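Hi W., the adenosine-5'-triphosphate complex you wanted:
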Amino acid sequence: MTARSGAVVSDPATSSGAGSLLDVDDVSCVLGGVRALSEVTMHIAPGELVGIIGPNGAGKTTLFNVVTGFVPATTGEVRWDGAPLRGGKAHKVARSGLVRTFQNVGGFTGLTVAENLELATRGRDPEAIERVEALLHLADVRDRSVEDCSLATRKLVGIAMALVRTPRLLLLDEPLAGLDDTDRDRVTSLIEQVHDSGVTVCMVEHDIGRTLRLADRMVVLDAGRLVAAGTPAELARDDVLARNYLSS
Ligand SMILES: Nc1ncnc2c1ncn2[C@@H]1O[C@H](COP(=O)(O)OP(=O)(O)OP(=O)(O)O)[C@@H](O)[C@H]1O
Ligand SMILES: [Mg+2]
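Structure:
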């Protein structure tokens, strides 16, 4: 694939979607006259941890909105587990295992951590709550109101609310934003544990260093276009890409 720099980056992300969990094929999305996504093609295979980076306004959140059915693609096609997601309602998509977090902090104020997790499962899956509380070390704060939790804990509550819905693909929108270095390391290592537990992960981040360390594969968006994709090492070998996108 040709990157904006003119350099060629090998790209398993744009190869055929056979066996992939998520296929985004030639997707464009126009919002209020703004072309938020332009002809984006990418695929996510089971078991991957994919990092999506790019400047503000690149279309990263819009991509999540389109693939989770919050916003329709203007043109192009999204396939989830091989089946087209046409006019997919967000809650139906989530029930089928494609679950996201939101860019703002997680959890509804006025509710405890446990109540937020019960809300996310509609009270139907206490075992999932117990498992996720243990995985993300939230058991000690389960009875605390989310507004009394640290930002890092609230970020984890957001991730937990997605995990209790037993995702097959977890989309994380800026899970490290607003955190200090210590909390970034803590949340990063918990994301790694979630991935190691068998969940396919795709995360949007502005923390390039941690994303490069965590991800199997990276996708770079800029002004709605996919400008590069490849392993962290492949991207880093391209001087122009490295200069434009990989230095924080
Ligand atoms: N509802 C909307 N109406 C009009 N334009 C929108 C809307 N939502 C997003 N946009 C525009 O679409 C473009 C992509 O926005 P998006 O939020 O996807 O970027 P992003 O890569 O997530 O940025 P950030 O890193 O700041 O979160 C931007 O130009 C944004 O202003
Ligand atoms: Mg965003």
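The mean pLDDT is 91.

W.
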